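Entry 14. Structure prediction run on the chain below.
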Amino acid sequence: MSAITLEEMDYGQKRINSTKLKTEQSPPYARQVEPSHFPQEFLLNESPTYDLHQPFNKPNSYDVREILVNMDLYVSESDHFMIKLRDIFKNYIHTYKEAETANAWLKSPNMQYWDQQLNFAMWATTTGCGVSIHDHLYNENIPAQIRSFFRFHVYFMTRRILNQLGCPLPDDTDVFDLNNNVFNEVEYHKICDEFGVDYNTDFRFSYDPSGNNGIGIGYQWYGGAAHIKHIQRKYQGSMLQIPDAEDEARRSYKWYKFQNADYRPYNYFILKNSAGFTQAGLGRLNRSIEAYIYCVLGSQADTRVSIVDSGGGAQETRQKMKALLEDEIRGINEDDSIPRYQNVINSTRVKLDLAISPSLWLLPSKMIINLNTNVAGYNNFLQQATENMKFGYNNINNEVKKPALEKMEGHTDPIKRPVLQRSLAVEDTTSSQMAPAGHEQPTRQWRGSVLEAPEHDILHEYATLGTLVGAILLTYLFI
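Output returned:
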């Protein structure tokens, strides 16, 4: 398939499916804002109108599979690394060898088919959130770190939705079924309600140059010769043997199969241009930010090696990131996602200063572990973007934490002995003898808010106190 540029794509005005994305009334804290600091496509839009999918009048020149499976992630303006992720876009081409299967696909939308499961998850992650091809995934005019985040979001959230639906993936060979894949209908309804879309929405890819409404081109097989050829003939609802006008003697041509053309159908369910994020999208994007920071920084915190370094240490860090990503997709320890996001920022000593949209979490403009032991990190008092910030980098959160003082080897801190505090709950002493020779002298220990002292220290202080009191009384008597 010959590639064309994005600018040459003729999307036209035709709409194959007029189903619109509906949104519920937004809560007060998520009101629409229009500061000049953020482009509209990076703001909340309380009432967007997005078509279910893009028109199918031309094949797409792009394929998100290329940027999502082999992901190039920028962790600063110039530092980036490649990571290969699990491929969920393979084996999506349907082959129909039985009329029953082909007729079932044509009859009505049915989420038991893998292609419709994948199309739905891609739609929810992109169009359902207000994330688009031009504005977020391929936009060279935004910071590379933000573009990288949106690519991560699409992969992560698509996988997460498929996991929520309980769908086996193409490389789950023991359970995956292209035409009858497992899915959880209850969870499907929950996600539909979240994004305001009808349960019966059609997520089939129906563009078909052969005129067969999505089941594709017919392939014929004849006689005992192992020969197959394809022909764009109208599907009549069966796979019955048909006569061959060219060879009346053999009359053995029959339909062998119908197969989709490779038009990368999932791409057509991604929004082309955005008019702003949806309310459901803000929640999903915030969850993706938490996962993104945890995976990229958490892997470095674990190995203490920069993820953009060369060598075995960096490779180990990237493998650790992939393992953390799989945990995040499965929702392991889901209730701790926000504390994990905050803790990993502190442990890697990075600064939150990159704003995507008001009310979304801030990201570090440099997501590389800070190994400078003279810096304990940044206070990061601001953790969410606000309306008065600007899109992209902000000069904020500059206050540096003071590093904790570490005791040097062979050095004794000149700390004064704390004043002895006794409680009525302190156990009575039974002996005032010194420790036997050869035994170390016991030292004072804190128990809660009470300083526990060894027995002979206490008696010594009592004796000292008694001597002092006696001296005062004698002085008083002589006066």
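The chain is about 30% helix and 10% strand.
Filed with the rest of this week's runs.
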